Amino acid sequence: MSKPLVRFRVASYNTHKCRGIHGTISVERVIRVIAELDTDILCLQEIVDAPGGTGKFDQANQIAAAFPQLHTAFGKTRPLHGGQYGNMVLSRFPILEAHTHELPRSRREERGVLHCVLDLGGSLRVNVFNVHFGTGYMERRKQIEALIGDEILAKPELSGPRIVIGDFNEWTRGRTTKVLQKSFLSHRPRPPFRFERTYPGVLPLLSLDHCYYEEPLKLEHSKIWRSRKALVASDHLPLLADFSLEANAAVA
Which residue ranges form the domains of the chain, and what is each CATH number? Predict the structure, then answer.
């Protein structure tokens, strides 16, 4: 007799502060792309949460309002436009916990990880780490060490499998890739170096957005979303990963 499965889709999308390829900021355009993804767990990077400013910077609230059926969490990495700027998670599943972790930087923009513990039902939990790394080589070396350390990915009290997804700003098989592939499985097709390109959106040349995961999660399918709307809404294309998890899988 087959075991019951929980199936869900995870997506990562760097919205570029909702600035499209033509330079204009449009939250509505990004919302239309999100609606196309039909995702259960959405990890957004480069979101502005400034309700007191102009409408174009009230991005987190507008996105949350467009999807009232989803639970939301926001992780601040720095102040911006009279509000805050960082990563955001929207989830069909209840968010039991949300933690923001700062990452080391070298005189560059602040970066962070938003960790959400999600309740899949039936005592199943999954840990989603929404990551946005820096653009500097040495900066990323420090950030990957912090990510895999005892305060974030190796935190002793974690319960449930881990998904590490987001914009890693690494387009070659560098240290970040090598370190994560030692402990995690990856969405990347085989053989290596045939990465699906996500940046820049309208004519993608680089693979910056990645998804890592661990058993008992099973990756059913992954793809890059290349709709007409997505090609112009941001400088990144969304990454989708469809997972299954046995309903009686161990949570520890």
Answer: 5-246 (3.60.10.10)
